[in-house]
């Protein structure tokens, strides 16, 4: 699919993470041996940050702006692309097809994704990506 490029924000439509927003890290239009269908490697938000108001203390604000990420291989049929993009250059090397082979690698990748997303959230960019879908 020509519009499922790196950095495109999509919404998952099926399964455990249905309705969650993800950013495409590595699209695979043709499929490969382990996943013989068009799919994408995505990083998304499992638990969105809570709402923050000005009156809250710094510690409370920090606690409420935590993000729980996930990484996953998802079939194109279960992705709905949006008009938004999210530049995450740092993640391209971190999350690869090999990341999923070993649990420890997966955990490390998740930590890196978490750090990147939380930095992005606290800087106030891409506000829409960090709000849960309401439906």
Walk me through this protein's architecture.
- This protein has a single domain, classed as SH3 type barrels.
- The protein has 2 helices and 5 strands; from the N terminus they run E-E-E-H-E-E-H.
- A 5-stranded antiparallel sheet has the order 4-3-2-1-5, with helices on one face.
- The protein is globular and about 55 Å long.
- The model has no long low-confidence stretch (mean pLDDT 89).
- Keywords: Ribonucleoprotein, Ribosomal protein.
Unreliable sequence segments? none
CATH architecture: Roll
Q: Can you identify the CATH class?
A: Mainly Beta
CATH topology: SH3 type barrels
The structural domain count equals 1
Quote the beta fraction. 25-35%
Helicity range: 10-25%
The helix count comes to 2
Write a short abstract of this structure.
The chain is α+β, with helices and mostly antiparallel strands and 135 residues long. Helices cover 20% and strands 27% of the residues. It is built from 2 helices and 5 strands.
What is the topology?
Elements: E1 8-12, E2 21-28, E3 39-47, H1 58-64, E4 68-75, E5 79-85, H2 103-122
Antiparallel strand pairs: 1-2, 1-5, 2-3, 3-4
Quickly list its features.
structural constituent of ribosome; SH3 type barrels; Translation_prot_SH3-like_sf; Ribosomal_eL27; five-stranded antiparallel beta sheet; alpha+beta; 135 residues; ribosomal protein; 5 strands
